[in-house]
Amino acid sequence: MRRKANQKRLIPLLLALVATMVGAALAVPTFTLNVQNIGEGGPQAITVPGGVANANVSWVLDSNPDYVKGVSVSFDQDLASGTTIYAKVYDSSGNLIALGSTTLSSALTAGTTVEIDLNTTVEIKNMDQVAIVLVGP
Question: Alpha carbon 48 to chain centroid distance?
Fold first, then answer.
C-alpha cells in the first residue's frame, strides 16, 4: 500500500520535470553580435552602414526543431532603405554551410526585427558561428 502512495506522489514531480525539460529544449537562444568596421585600426577603415555597433540575432527554427531555417536580426541603429543584410552560418571547421540575405525596401528603425531565410535548413549540431554582414545602399 505504501509503495502505491509513493508512486502517486512521484507522478506530479515527474510531470513537472518533463515540462521543465521540454521548455528548456524549445528555448531559442538570442545573442548579441559586436560589430567591427572593415579595416578597423587601419588607415582605410570602412564604416558599417548606419553606424551599427551591435546586432541581436535569434534563430528561426524549422518545423523540425533540430534544424534552423533562418535568423531574426535587429540592430542598435537605423538602417537606410536599400541596405542588404547577409546572414552567413559556419560549421566548426570554418566552412560556410548556409547563407541568406534580404535587401531593405524601406528604412529599418533601430530595434525592429527583420527575418532572413537561409538557402538551406541547417542541423543545429553542425552550426558553430554566424556572421551578419551589412552592405550599404
Answer: 20
